[in-house]
Amino acid sequence: MGRIERKAFRLQDQIKALREDEQRLVSELDYHRHIHDDAQRDAIAGNAEDRVFYGEVKGDLPRFEKALDKTRRRISAGEAELQRLLDSFGN
Predict the structure, then answer these.
(1) Helix axes 60-90, 3-45, angle to 10 degrees
(2) Is 5 helix (H, G, I), strand (E, B) or coil?
(3) How far is C-alpha 52 from the geometric centre of its chain's CA atoms?
(4) Would you list the DSSP string of 14-64?
(5) pTM score of the predicted model
(6) Which pLDDT tens digit goes with each residue over 32-68?
(7) Which of 43, 46, 54, 68 has the fewest beta carbons closer than 10 A?
(8) Comparing C-alpha atoms, which of 38, 81, 87 is closest to residue 61?
(9) What are the CB-based long-range contacts (under 8 Å, 24+) for 51-58?
(10) Residue 91 in this model has a pLDDT that exceeds 70
């Protein structure tokens, strides 16, 4: 097996791992969206403790959205690199 083939297999493994991370992040993001929405609603209608809790969780949602976006960009870059390798292998 040549260098290009080894690199292609390594990239496929990395993309697979990134897709698993993506699925995990989607689930966690969904969970944090529910917490964020509940905490925001409670902060509006609730007491000082509710507002403090919302202050603690409001940063989680953008953090998970950013992590998901970064993972998806890494998947796209990996797939583009893999395609480039496959195209060069055919030549």
Answers:
(1) 160
(2) helix
(3) 27
(4) HHHHHHHHHHHHHHHHHHHHHHHHHHHHHHHHS-HHHHHHHHHHTTHHHHH
(5) 0.84
(6) 999 999 999 999 999 999 999 999 999 999 999 999 9
(7) 46
(8) 38
(9) 57/32
(10) no
